[in-house]
Structure formats: structure tokens, C-alpha cells
Amino acid sequence: MTNQLGTRVGTYSTHMLSVFRIVVGLLFLLHGTSKLFGWPAAGPTAEMFAWPTWWAGVIEIIVGALVAIGLFTREAAFIGAGHMAVAYFWQHFPSDFWPINNGGEPAVLFCFALLLLVFTGPGSWAVQRR
């Protein structure tokens, strides 16, 4: 039974990789728009050119858009993964080691989701395939 399941779902793996990439890209894009424009999450926005928040929002919007559409996916995901690693160690790690305690879970998840895309590529539904 397990082998049959693996065979069935294996035929859709490149399509589901694309769905994963699109969702991660859109969520990363929204992470940036909330910093720069206060949308969709209402809250304080970063002042223009304010270090590091405004620049982080710009990186998140550009990387999120590129990853979502599948253009330069590996390169953009590499930059995004590094960006989230830096964000974790600069903003979250100093207050506590564990992400559950320091509010760094989104940064860790984005970092490793984007790192996965560096190694897997964009999947079958992408503007730029391989």
C-alpha cells in the first residue's frame, strides 16, 4: 500500500513543488508589503530608507515576487534564505535561543523553505524552467 501511495503522489511532485513555491513566494511578498505599506496587516510601516526594516521589506517584496512567478527562483530563494537567517540572528536570537520563545518561527520557516527551493528549483509551473 505504501508503495502504491508513493507512486501515485510521485507523479504530481513537480506540480506540488510549484504550488509550494507559489505559496511561499506570495507569503514572503506579503511579509514585505506589511513592512512597507501596512498591507494586508495593519500596523506601523517602515520609514523610507530606514535601516534595516525598509530594506528588509524591499528584499522581501522582490524575492517574494520572483519566487512566486518562478523567475530566477534559485538565486532569489538563496538571497531570501540568507536574509531570513540574518533576520533571525539579529532580531530574534539575542532574546532567546528557541524560536518558539523569541518569535522567530516565521524567520526560521521562511529560511528553510527558501533554502529548499534553492536545491529543488521552481517545479514545472514557472516562468523560467531550469
TrEMBL record:
UniProt family annotation: Belongs to the DoxX family.
Topology of this chain in the membrane: Multi-pass membrane protein
Signal peptide residues on this chain, from the entry's feature table: none
Domain of life: Bacteria
Keywords associated with the record: Cell membrane, Membrane, Transmembrane, Transmembrane helix
PANTHER family on file: BLL4328 PROTEIN, OXIDOREDUCTASE CATD-RELATED
The keyword Transmembrane is annotated on this UniProt entry: yes
Name recorded for this polypeptide: DoxX family protein
Transmembrane segments: 12-31, 51-69, 76-94, 106-127
Localisation per UniProt entry: Cell membrane
InterPro entries: DoxX, DoxX-like_oxidoreductase
Organism this protein belongs to: [Mycobacterium] burgundiense
